[in-house]
Every structure is written in C-alpha cells, then in structure tokens.
C-alpha cells in the first residue's frame, strides 16, 4: 500500500512542508531511513539525523524549526510520537488477516467458535469454550475447558489459558504467557507444605495486552482481575487474587505479590516489586527495581528499596556519591580534634 504525504497529513491533522505528493509505503527509524519510508523526530537528541535521513517523509512536532536544509518532506503535527502510533495502527488494521480453522487443530465438539476466526495448526480448545468473532489463535496455544475469549483477540503461539478463565474483547496475548496457573498457595506443616487448592479464576477485561512469558495466577477463591486497558510487558508476575486497575502499565520483570489491589493509571518500572496484601492508589509511579511495603495513597512517585519519595531518594543518592569525600573529612577532623585534646 502506498500513501502520499498529503493523504497522511489529512488523516492525522498535520501540515505538509515540502512535496505533498511524496509517496511512502513503509516505516523506518530516522537514522535508518530509506526512500519510500516515513520516520519521526520527537526526541531532540536525534535531530542531526533529520538532515541526512533518506526517508521520504518525517513527522515532526509543530514547534520544530530546522537549522539547515532538509531533503525529506516534513509533516508537522501536535505530537509526532502519537501521530506515528496512529499511523502504525492504521497500517496494521489494513493488513489482510488470516482466516480459517486448520484441520490439525483440536477443538472440542462442545466449543463455540465465532465468525471470521483464524485457528492455526496444533491449537487445542477444550470442552465448553467460547471464542468470539474475529479472533486469531496461533500454533500451539491451549485453551482449557470452560474458558472464554472475547471478540477480536489475538493469541500468539504457545499461549496457555487455563480452565474457566475469561479474556475480554480486543486483547493481545503474546507467546508463552500463562493465564490461570495455580497461585502460590501452600500451608506449612511439620512434614512440609500442603497445597491449598486454587479454586478461583482469572478475569481479563477489554483492550489488555500481555507480554511474552508473563504469568497471571488464578485466585485461591474468587478472581484475579486485570481491568480494561492494562499493558503488561514480558516476564511480569501477577499473583493470586490481585486486582490491577484500568490503564496501568508494567515494564518487564515486575512482580506483584498476592491479594494486592492496584489503582488506575499506575506505572511500574522494570523489576519493581510490590508486597502482598497492599493497596496502591491511583496514578502511582513506582520506579525500576523499587520495592514497596504496605499501602500507598496514590499520586506518588517512588524510587529505591525500600521505596521512598523520588525527591528524597535523589537527595540521598547525591549524598552517597559524596561519602568517600565526607569520610576523608571526618577522619581529618577527628585527627585534628585528637591533636587539640592532647595539647
């Protein structure tokens, strides 16, 4: 598919500077541009590349003013990064989707499959499952008895959804993620650990994306709930009976201990850890490798382990850099004080 700069600008509400008939058919990073590609410039540290890029069109913010001549056609928009995302979504939506059910898939007679679905070879769909319209389920995926998947979902290769779990509409589950494995529930005894049956389920609402090899455990009783719009990176662990609020985002290797309730629009940096039975308020930001203990009221930005206010953490980090110098000064002052005492 080919589009002109004028067509693209019309779609995203941009202003063309240069050749409005410049054609593009692919995307490229600005430093790796090729003729026929569209790139974007949002971070000023990449500005030098705009003067040498071979891309035909570059999206820039409206306040961008070039320091010298640029060969590429520019499209000025309010937010270059958001506009690029919008274009890429449009491009993906326009791609033809696979349809049809492979004869090598194993689908229980009692399962209900919606219209216009693609089910790849070696997919297993259990008894009384329900799959909505327009879903794409790729090879090796396993969906347990009684599980339900909504409309327009994409389940990549080797996704596992355990029995009775629920996935909403327009969700994306990446390869290897596991929905509904048993929570980590064991009762210690004199002879070892007795397993506590995990009788609940996982409920995933609409427009959720779950990264590769991320695990969301089923509840001991009731439901582990992932609310609408949540975005989870790869290798995230959500424990049993957790509840993750709408539009919360977690980077890779975040771990949330059991029975924790997380508010809406929270952000968790990579490898952050949250203690169990906690309540995290709305719009909390937890930095990378940050460890929290107990409840958080919301609206806070935290760093460090144990977690503390980001401004306080930065002040302490600044002092830590000065510790060797301070140590020398203290030793020198101690020697001088001893000398004065001796006199």
Describe it.
By secondary structure, the protein is α/β, with parallel strands linked by helices. It folds into three domains: 3-94, 3-Layer(aba) Sandwich (Udp-n-acetylmuramoylalanyl-d-glutamate--2,6- Diaminopimelate Ligase, Chain: A, domain 1), CATH 3.40.1390; 100-311, UDP N-Acetylglucosamine Acyltransferase, domain 1, CATH 2.160.10; 312-342. The protein is built from four helices and 40 strands. The protein has a twelve-stranded mixed sheet with strand order 8-11-14-17-20-25-28-31-34-37-39-40, covered by helices on one side. A ten-stranded parallel sheet has the order 9-12-15-18-21-26-29-32-35-38, with no helix packed on it. The protein is flat. The chain starts with a strand and ends with a helix. The model has no long low-confidence stretch (mean pLDDT 94).
Task: List its traits.
343 residues; alpha/beta; Udp-n-acetylmuramoylalanyl-d-glutamate--2,6- Diaminopimelate Ligase, Chain: A, domain 1; UDP N-Acetylglucosamine Acyltransferase, domain 1; twelve-stranded mixed sheet; 4 helices
